[in-house]
Amino acid sequence: MAPTAPDVTVTVIVYNDAERLPRAVESLRRQTLRNIEIIISDDHSTDNTPEVARALAAQDERIVYNRLPQNSGGCSRPRNSAIEIAKAPYLMFLDSDDELPENALELLLAELRADDTVDFAMGGVERVRTDTGSVSAWHPHLFTKRQTVRGIENHPGVLFEHLSTNKMYRREFIDRHSLRFPEGIHYEDQLFSAQAYCLARAFTIVPDPCYRWYISPYEAVGALSISNQRHRIENVRDRINVARLIDDFLVESGHEAIKADKDFKFLKHDLRMYTGDLPYRSHEWIKQFADEVGPYLETLAPEAFHRLPRDQRVVIQLVRDGRYEEAQLASRGMGREVAPREVTEDGAGHVYWGSQVPADPASARELEISDLDLRTRPFKNALLRHEITRIVPEAGSRITLDVRTYDPGNQLPMAPVVATVHLAPAAKRLSASFRLDPVRPGLFEGTVTIDLSAVPLPPHGFAGVRHPVLAITQHRQHNTGLLLAPLEFPTLSKRIAYHRGMAEHTVTVEPEGHGAGRIQVRWERAGLLARAEPHLPTLARVAGPGLRKVSGLVRGLTK
């Protein structure tokens, strides 16, 4: 009797990832759908991946090891090679450093079998940070309900969801359109997914998570994934290249009607990734970036720019105008409701970002921020900018911060203002108040000293990162904003014993290192608590009765 054909083929692509490959494969072996084929498609690894892959195949007859004769340098060829040998009528793809939730295949297959007109089904994506363990959803607004979309024009917003790995495809659909991953380019998923969306008769979205994507933001340089190489100008060039290929495909396939939506996605997602990093780039790099991206921006639909949040439009325009230092300042406030250091008003009362009224009408249109109502908005929503200009370690566990507050809307009086820094690693917080003195209208300065040993930690300690905030009260309204750190200052670390010496921690004060660049404080358990770390769930359960009981348990666990 001939063996039963598998229901689904899942291809795991791998290159020099022997350590994580077993985890990915094990997530497939645990699937509630049992009748599957697992192809390990190896892009000619040079480490011990072949030995690991062959050992995995020996353990499970459902596993096929497919090794490419030479390295292709990308994800496309290993996937395409596996498509050619796959035996199932439904296909799915997995990267060797990720996983599938246990019921992912069963969920997606059920959707495809329920409706013959659906060419692929897609599920939600869990993003897991390997450095913190935190879990977030990838574009959760796209996965709020189950729905079948018949034609991309009916839901062009899904272009933001450009992964190929959270989708199960009909093999017949893939072959009908000779759909393959483009070889020789980076960001191949974006082109493949755009083509799939446009060519599909229908696709179904399910709200359940069907892919677990592990994000390593601080990988070693030699191991950086393509998406983590944004510091390379070549990476910018690759993104623009694939965007142009998508534009060409939209024209060729008769889907020009969604170009403005695709352009908006490029600005809101792809370009945003680079503009968010501008504070950490040199002016020379930003100039190269502007030279690469500028010509492509000229081809985008004007309405795509109009749909962007104002803060992103300001950064883009400052880059296009060659105002690189101001672009860096503006970048630190994107999505954070952080004010500019200063604004300029023209004779007609229009307010512009920065120190000058733009002479060019196009620049003036993009840099005008009159709609922010800096002067008249309620104080609780006032846009202020709090920058730390200097950090000084003091005796013991104290640190002193020199703070400068910018108030471009002149909502603060020209008089001393009481401000408070709050730091809350747990339920209770440390508050340190100080005086901000006026330097001139719209600018205040002050100094605050924080005693890190006075931060209230729970009895079982705390491991994690917190970002201090600065609060000001005026007219019985509280305004709370983030504290921007100097982008570069020596990391300050102190060993602090909380709770009468029973809860030792290493406490580090440092810049955030990405995004807005907030100041951050990081706690790591030390001493007895570090040794008791594996038992902390038990400690947390008994923390309620009091410190004495917890302290006794710590001593018992660490003997």
Descriptive report:
- This protein is 30% helix and 27% strand.
- With 559 residues, it is an alpha+beta fold.
- Mean pLDDT is 92; it is low at 220-224 and 545-559.
- It has helices spanning 21-29, 49-59, 76-85, 104-114, 171-176, 188-199, 233-252, 259-275, 283-297, 302-306, 310-320, 324-331, 361-367, 527-531, 536-542, 547-557, and strands spanning 8-14, 36-42, 63-67, 90-95, 120-129, 135-137, 147-149, 167-170, 203-215, 343-345, 351-353, 385-393, 398-406, 417-423, 430-440, 443-451, 464-466, 469-474, 477-484, 492-498, 503-511, 519-525.
- β10 and β11 form a beta hairpin.
- Strands 1, 2, 3, 4, 5, 6, 7, 8 and 9 form a nine-stranded mixed β-sheet that branches.
- This is Glycosyltransferase family 2 protein.
